[in-house]
Amino acid sequence: MIDRYSNPEISGLWSLENKFRIWLEVEIAVCEAWHQRGLIPAEDMQAIRSKAGFDLQRIEEIEKEVQHDVIAFLTSVKEHVGPAGRWVHYGMTSSDVGDTALCLQMVRAADLLLVRLRKVIEASRLLAIKYKDQVMVGRTHGIHGEPTTLGLKFAHFYAEMKRNEERLIEARRQVAVGKLSGAVGTFSNIEPALEEEVCRSLGLEPEPVATQVINRDRHAFYLSVLGVIAGGLDRMAQEIRLLQKSEGREVEEPFAKGQKGSSAMPHKRNPVICERICGLARVIQSNAMTGFRDMPLWHERDISHSSAERVVLPDSTIALDYILDKMFYVLSNLNVYPDNMDRVLNHTRGLVFSQRLMLNLIDRGLEREEAYRRVQTASMEVWADPATSLKQKALQQPEFTELLSAEDVERIFDVQYFLRNIGAIYTRLGLQ
User: Fold this and answer.
1) What is the pLDDT of residue 1?
2) 3-state DSSP percent of the chain in helix, strand and coil, to 5
3) Which of 293, 316, 340 marks a domain boundary?
4) Which of 54, 207, 360, 431 is the most exposed place for a label (fewest CB within 10 A)?
5) How many angstroms separate the Cα of 181 from the Cα of each of 6, 199, 200?
C-alpha cells in the first residue's frame, strides 16, 4: 500500500526486514526444538542464539544470483552464524518457514486491526446513545419513508461492527496455524511432535493436514472478512456522504481549520474522508477475490499464490487499518445539525405519516384497498401542490373527516408514535 494510505505500525509489520525477522524467529524456534532432542549440540545452539541475524542488502544481492528468496535469506544467516549455521533450516522446506511466518504476520495484523475496530465500535456506541431520540427522516430508495432517529443509524453500525469483531476474531483463529511437515506434507524429515512443540512456542496451532503449504482456504476466509469489514465502513461512510449533501446537511464529516475543499470553489466542504473510505473499501473487497483464486494450487503446491499474496495481504490489512482509523476520526468529530433534520423531515409536508393514516382508516372499517386509494390520492395531491400538506387533507377532505376527528388526526401525525419501540431495540443491543 502506498504511504499516503498507510499507518506506520501495520506497515512495519509487512516490511521486508520484518518478514525476514519473523522467518528467523521460526528458524530459531525449530533449532531450539532440535536442540531439546539432542540433535544440535549446546555450543552450536548457543552460537545460533547469539549470532543469528541477516543483512537485508546481502539477501538482495544473493537473490539476484540464486533467484530464490529463502535460499538467499538462509545464506545470509549462515554468514552470520558460522559453522553452526548448518543446523538452520534442518529438515525444513521453504514453505515451512514462509507459510508459518506469513500466518504470524496475519495474526499480528489482525491484532492491530482489532484495536482499531474496537475504537470504531465504541465511537458508534456513544453516538447511538447520544442521538437515540434525535428524530430525522428515514428513506427507502432515497425517498422519504417514515421517521427514524440518527441514533438508530449508529445503532445499526454498532451492531454490524460488533459482528465484524466476531468475524475478525474467527479469521485470526483460522490463520493462527503453522506447518513443518516438509516438502509434500508427509513429515518425511520432521516428526509431528516437533511441529506441535514449535507451533506452541510461536503461539500457533499446527495445521492438521497440509500439502507443502498451509491450505489457502484460511487465507481466503481472512481476506473475505477484511472485505466484509470494509463493506460496513463503506456503508457508513456513504450514509454520511448522503446526509451531508448541501440540500440537507443533516450531518457532516469534520472540516479542519485551514482545510480547503476545492481548487476552484472556495465555499466547498466536501466529504473527502468518507469518499476515501469508500474508495479503499473497493480495493480491499477486490483483493478478496485474489484470495479465492489462490485456493486451487497444482497438486501439493505451486507458487502462483505467492506473488499475489505479497500484494493483497499487506495491502488489504494496511488499507483496512487506515480506513478504520479514518472512520474513528470522522465519528469522533462528526458535525450534527438537528435543525436541518427537522427541516428535512418536514420537507415532504407530512407524507411520512401516510401509512399511519391508512392504518387508522382500516381501523375505522375501510377495506385496505379503499384506505390505500384514499391516502394515495391525497398524497399525490400533496406532491403536486407545495402549498398543502397531508395533515391538511386529513383535516379537510370528507373521505377522511367522515371517519376521523380532529383529535384523531393530531394523534396520527404525532412523530413520537414512530419512536415508541426504539428503546426495545436498544435493549436488544445492550445499549441501555
Assistant:
1) 85
2) 65, 5, 30
3) 340
4) 431
5) 35, 12, 15
Its domain, for residue 81, covers 1-89
Tally the domains of the chain: 3
pLDDT digits (tens, 9 = 90+) for 98-138: 999 999 999 999 999 999 999 999 999 999 999 999 999 99
How many residues are given for the chain? Answer: 432
CATH number at residue 412: 1.10.40.30
Q: Identify whether 432 is part of a domain.
A: no
Q: CA-to-CA distance for 165 and 115, rounded, in angstroms?
A: 10
Let me know if 304 is a catalytic residue.
no
Q: Facing residues of 144 across strands?
A: 139
Beta strand pairing call for 177-178 and 205-206:
parallel
Do 21 and 154 have their domain in common? no
Residue 248 sits in the same domain as residue 318: yes
Q: For 240-296, how does the pLDDT look when each residue is reduced to its tens digit (9 = 90+)? A: 999 999 999 999 999 989 999 889 999 999 999 999 999 999 999 999 999 999 999
Q: Are residues 73 and 98 in the same domain?
A: no
User: Tell me, what CATH number does 64's domain have?
Assistant: 1.10.275.10
What is the signed CA dihedral for 102, 106, 109, 114, rounded to 10 degrees?
-170
Question: One of 15, 50, 188, 262 is an active-site residue; which one?
Answer: 262
pLDDT digits (tens, 9 = 90+) for 300-350: 888 889 899 999 999 999 999 999 999 999 999 999 999 999 999 999 999
- Identify the active-site residue in 141, 267, 299, 307: 141
**pTM strictly above 0.90:** yes
Is residue 262 annotated as a catalytic residue, yes or no? yes
- Residue where a domain terminates, one of 50, 69, 89: 89
Q: How far is CA 216 from CA 143, 174, 204, 322, 380, in A?
A: 44, 11, 16, 25, 57
Q: What are phi and psi of 177, to 5 degrees?
A: -130, 160
Residue 36 in domain: yes
Q: 360 and 224, same structural domain?
A: no
